[in-house]
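ARCHIVE CARD
Drawer: 12
Card no.: 0347
Subject: one protein chain, sequence and derived structure
Cross-reference: see card 0346
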Amino acid sequence: MTAQDIADLRRWHRNAVRRSLEAGYDIVYVYGAHGYGAPHHFLSRRYNNRTDEYGGPLENRMRLLRGSIEDTLEEVAGRAAVACRITVEEEIDGGITREDIEGVLREPRRVCRTCGTSRWAGWEGDSVTSRFAPEGRQEEFVAGLKKLTTKPVVGVGRFTSPDAMVRQVKAGILDLIGAARPSIADPFLPNKIRDGRLNLIRECIGCNICVSGDLTMSPIRCTQNPSMGEEWRRGWHPERVRAKESDSQVLVVGAGPSGLEAARALGVRGYDVALVEARRELGGRVTQESALPGLSAWGRVREYREAALAEPPNVEIYRESPMSANDIVEFGFQHVLVATGSTWRTDGVARFHTTPLPIAEGAQVLGPDDVFAGRLPSGRKVVVYDDDHYYLGGVLAESAGAAWLRGLRRDHRLAGVGVDQQHLRDQPHPAPPHRERRHPRHRPRRRRGRRRRGDGPRRVRRRRA
């Protein structure tokens, strides 16, 4: 970039600030994080090889950041807050270091009085999945920065626990909690904390399906909040759902993530809902996967919905209640939602291979469903064939290795075998209390428009057309 290029950039940034004020924004960020733009690139020796007044020592490399902040302050003129988002530590050769950022915050001019937000690394470090980092992992990087500035310091860390948030504020680590992913999962997180409705918080599970949209150019999504990204297109709201439009009874077959969410939403709308699950435990695939190494947080998908389903009296749950198509038809519900999920193929057909693969005769071939059912490889040499290209192949390989080591330690009492203890401790959280029916053959009460005939979910009297 030439000097004129830099001047143009500052002018364009200032124009953007002006447009932000016209649009009514209350906070304007000068963004120096995540490798998104020039302020970050100029700060980092990894990108900045200049030999002029914008390169070399920190004083020069922070010149663009300082100038952008000063331009923003002049343009805002007290009409909005100004914050600076900066990378604290890139953890890469030639990248921004903690020493650099301490120098930025100590800078005696205006820049140090406006750098109020501290962030860490790029997306791969700043938004680590729950599988690889716990809640609040950035604490070690932001601790102590507050002492270097008089401005409020905001920090992130996929905070979902109110206790963790309060602890960092009371300990003087942060002034404000930044919660992007937790707010995507539950936009009403602050209200629920304030009102003491902690059991109804849709906690972020750290799967990063939301972040993946930035890399795939696809609309944002959220495993916990199905309304995310659909507010503008379908008019969905994470908390408010339109009331029922009839007195129909609804049968939901399958209590996996989709079935649980369907039953919850229908219950909120006011419909009488029967949720039927073949297994004893609810949650389907998410319950099975949350028992795998590093995925215990995924159990929150089930836990939130179990807690939510414990409230409405118009939703009844039937566990250990397999149903056939004939059963469904015989019970006579006006509406039936089938949410029975799917099973994994074991013939090699997957994402790229569209035809079965040749498999040696007599070879033991297992799929994820086998592992979930407790069937593990019988030999000591195992090949995990992954044509899913997502998380499960790696997690299953880790799970199989950990299970083998556990068996080795138990059977042979070996000492000194290293296993990731955090992963060995990962277990689903206990489910909250809920109303349930052990089997659909037990129905304790009658409702208008229904009659008891035989067993199972109460049959509904068919209305004439």
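Annotation on reverse: Residues 52 and 108 are 22 Å apart (CA to CA). The longest helix spans residues 392-412.
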